[in-house]
Known about the structure:
Blueprint: H1 2-39, E1 42-52, E2 55-62, E3 65-72, E4 78-80, E5 88-96, E6 99-107
Parallel strand pairs: 4-6
Antiparallel strand pairs: 1-2, 1-5, 2-3, 5-6
Amino acid sequence: xxxxxxxxxxxxxxxxxxxxxxxxxxxxxxxxxxxxxxxxxxxxxxxxxxxxxxxxxxxxxxxxxxxxxxxxxxxxxxxxxxxxxxxxxxxxxxxxxxxxxxxxxxxxxxxxx
Length: 113
């Protein structure tokens, strides 16, 4: 009977360790997915409504409603074309915390508008 009792304690200990470790594994996986989602580049297109030395505001249509999105421009932002208010442009960006950092801005020429 003592062998059976020892085996039962062993199985209980294994189960306890597995149950205690499961939340840690789930948390690690969740953190990795959040970091991966944040690191993904996204692209939106719309009309330039404001341009400053370090930022660009684009108005997009979201569910039929206008929405302004402000992007931070850095020295690494690649700009194709002349950014001017009213121009149509697409912005490839990456979320960096609360900021949206423009990686690439492509302005459509007047002939494309």
